Automatic annotation (TrEMBL), chain A:
Entry keyword annotation includes Protease: no
Stored PANTHER family: HIGH-AFFINITY BRANCHED-CHAIN AMINO ACID TRANSPORT SYSTEM PERMEASE, SLR1201 PROTEIN
Organism listed in the record: Lichenibacterium ramalinae
Pfam family, one: BPD_transp_2
Membrane spanning stretches: 12-32, 38-57, 64-86, 127-150, 157-175, 206-235, 256-274, 294-317, 329-353
Membrane topology classification: Multi-pass membrane protein
Keywords: Cell membrane, Membrane, Transmembrane, Transmembrane helix
Alphabetized InterPro entries for the sequence: ABC_transp_permease, ABC_transptr_urea_perm_UrtC, LivM-like
Name by which UniProt lists this protein: Urea ABC transporter permease subunit UrtC
Region spans: Disordered: 360-383
Gene Ontology terms for molecular function: branched-chain amino acid transmembrane transporter activity
Compartments, as annotated in UniProt: Cell membrane
TrEMBL record, chain B:
Presence of keyword 4Fe-4S: no
A Pfam family reported for this protein in Swiss-Prot or TrEMBL: ABC_tran
Stored SUPFAM superfamilies: P-loop containing nucleoside triphosphate hydrolases (SSF52540)
Keywords of the record: ATP-binding, Nucleotide-binding, Transport
PANTHER family hit by this protein: CONSERVED COMPONENT OF ABC TRANSPORTER FOR NATURAL AMINO ACIDS-RELATED, HIGH-AFFINITY BRANCHED-CHAIN AMINO ACID TRANSPORT ATP-BINDING PROTEIN
Residue ranges occupied by any ABC transporter domain in the UniProt entry: 11-251
Highest classification ranks of the organism: Bacteria, Pseudomonadati, Pseudomonadota, Alphaproteobacteria, Hyphomicrobiales
Protein name: Urea ABC transporter ATP-binding protein UrtD
One GO MF term: ATP binding
Matches recorded under InterPro entries: ABC_AA/LPS_Transport, ABC_transporter-like_ATP-bd, ABC_transptr_urea_ATP-bd_UrtD, BCA_ABC_TP_C, P-loop_NTPase
Amino acid sequence: MPSQRILSGRGLVFLAVLVAAAVLVPVLSLAVPPASPFHLSAYAVTLVGKYLCYALLALALDLVWGYCGILSLGHGAFFALGGYAMGMYLMRQIGARGTYANPNLPDFMVFLNWHDLPVTWWGFSSFTYAMAMVLLVPGLLALVFGYFAFRSRVTGVYLSIITQALTYALLLAFFRNEMGFGGNNGLTDFKDILGFDIQSAGTRAALFSASCAALALGYVVAAAVTASKFGQVLVAIRDAESRTRFLGYRVETYKAAVFTLSAMMAGVAGALYVPQVGIINPGEFAPANSIEAVIWVAVGGRGTLVGAALGAVLVNWGKTFFTGVFPEYWLFLLGGLFVGVTLFLPQGILGLVDRLTAPRRPEPPAERPVAPDEQVLPAPVAE
Amino acid sequence: MTDPVLTSSLLYLDDVRVSFDGYKALRGLSLVLAPNEMRAIIGPNGAGKTTMMDVITGKTRPDTGTVFFGGSVDLTKRDEAEIANLGIGRKFQKPTVFENHSVDTNVLLALKAPRGAFDTLFGRAARDRRERIDGILRRIRLWDHRARRAGDLSHGQKQWLEIGMLLAQDPKLLLVDEPVAGMTDSETATTAELLREIARDHAVVVVEHDMAFVRDLGVKVTVLHEGAVLAEGPLDQVSADPRVVEVYLGR
């Protein structure tokens, strides 16, 4: 019992797939000649790399929603903040190669007639500093937000609404030119990362492998956290918050801690996403993005980690396919998918797999009938 | 803060008043409990039994009044987690266990141990943990069910598990709200036996409607009515009190 294994058989398969992809994809993209049917185009590599970033975001969301019952509808904000931190580093790498050839200021600042680099941009020429910000900015925001929200015992729908408000407020703020993050247009026209051409097939393959590694690391961290006693307390909070409190656990501390960890993982996902798509703009803060991430987790299977990652990849692969074939129907399909999963697959795809493959459990011994007021499992979606 | 007169009592409530939107749930409740004493609290619905438990465990702050624990600790200034860690355990009316955890893990999570997030994330388990969990599981008659998911237990078993979780906390005082509601007669008898066992080394306050069960416990009874104490004493004595008969027993 208490000392659970951190990695299940499923988890090991998941990690093996990621390691294989991290090695094979660059080989198929770089070493196999374009004429070969096994060649992977840079476009395909980037597309799947993008899915992996979404998978890491889904994993982060599953940690708070699936294990602790915190339905965050604003996780896209942490993803976008991580993305902006990376974008700022990439902007500083452009140097004097911008349209205005200003060695000290990014193009949009020259355009706005600014003369000095704002304080918020200081240090972003350093990759190390930028990577620290990728973790610290989302983490700090989540810590402060979580401290106040959880201490005030905001839970359930109300918490979901304020997380949604959080990302919407950031969306509006980042749209403003005065914020100094490129306003409406965001940050783009990146040239290179760590001295490598960001457009080259080699860099793209490296970013893909880095995304695999980040997802694998994120998975191992999340699996270790959920297998620890800390993780058992998270599930206890999800299922019976006041019982946990009356046992003497500080529920607000646990929630703030896991929310912060999750936000940092989301920030890393955003940071890997931006160099692969080549742009970050305030649209990434759109509330709809955060809701979509919740759908990925629900589709794959809440509280399974692997399922969340799988859901993100599958739904986004479907999105790529359907927006190509029937662009106008995608949103209806997505909405229908969420309703369908909620109604028919409450445990998502992995839950279905478990049900189909599990050996039939012996019937529990006959017991007295269930009392009318007996507690039934709350439906976590409605919480 | 410390009143020398109070130090001998484990729990001391004096003139506690609580109102919700004008409704007076407690109107000057006073109660004194000695260490290792077992007390039954009875009273009709709305008498303030659950509100009293809420005040003691920090869920509800009283408008006025004094609540001391262990003679010197002011409970009105602490929150639920602090009060739990001071040594007050609470069992809810509806059995509340961690449905998705095994019976074993339920007891483990309740076991007295550092409660901080850092401790549970990186801490090492105490060596005697297994023995303590096993001892509790035997005591609450769930040893054979230890690997089962708590949500799959019967209603009565969940009640016992919750009592076991209180034991694991090793509190000085257990508050038990209607432990036999919805139980069969044999489960009720077992529960009474279990509580008497526990009362040997813990103070216990039991709120209960079931008179046969209260008689079975054979302890001092406090009758609450409209948020204050109406009568106190052995069950035979209070049930002979005409005021008690009028508000409660006679109905």
